[in-house]
Amino acid sequence: MKDKSNIKWCMNQMRKQRHDFMNYLQVIYGYLQINKPEEALNYIKKINSRMYMLSQLYNLDNSYLSLIINDIINSIERCALEWQLKNLNFYISEEKLSKNINKYIENLNTFKQELYDILRKEFKKQEIYIDAKEIEEGVQILLYNDMEIDLNNNNLNFILISENISLYKENDKKIVMINIQ
Fold it and tell me: Which of 32, 45, 140, 179 suits 115 as a labelling partner, its CA being 20 to 30 A distant?
């Protein structure tokens, strides 16, 4: 049963990619139909940049982490927000994630809705930086809106969203910490 959930999760990821690819082609086709080749080229450059970042994600040694971050990117894009991957040039043991991946998949819909709600409320029209680090219990994925934010700042206001999601705020600076344990 658990393998079936994993396969379904992977298939949904592939369906989403196919859907996005078809949308990209339709936008380019539309620009060309209305004789705006410069906009089509700019859109292609934007897609190319996004695909480069996704290539970095898919080249991680940890396939579970790649799929989880891909899920998070899908939630970010659902909110019409831009994103960038940061500091993913490290190794996180697949063993740590594989122990609890089924728990993550079982709670995926709840997790995605909680994340979506936070993104819609807290990150209006802001670019989101995505980072990840290994912690003792598993992996922590960080979403933040300011490259200058001090993650060790004790003055950040803490809001517990759920067992695995926390929000830290300081004025306009925000961090969402997602713990995959």
Answer: 45
DSSP letter at 26? H
User: Model pTM?
Assistant: 0.80
What percentage of residues in the chain have a pLDDT greater than 90?
18
Please report which helix (H) or strand (E) contains residue 120, including its range. Answer: helix 108-122
Mapped onto helix, strand or coil, the DSSP state of residue 99 is: helix
How much is the average pLDDT of 120-133?
86
Calculate the alpha carbon distances from 156 to 64, 66, 89, 171 in Å: 30, 29, 27, 9
Domain positions in the chain are: 2-180
Are β-strands 157-160 and 83-85 bridged in parallel, bridged antiparallel, or unpaired?
unpaired
In angstroms, the CA 172 to CA 181 distance is 29
* Nearest by Cα to 178 from 169, 168, 170, 147: 168
Cβ count within 10 A of residue 173 = 15
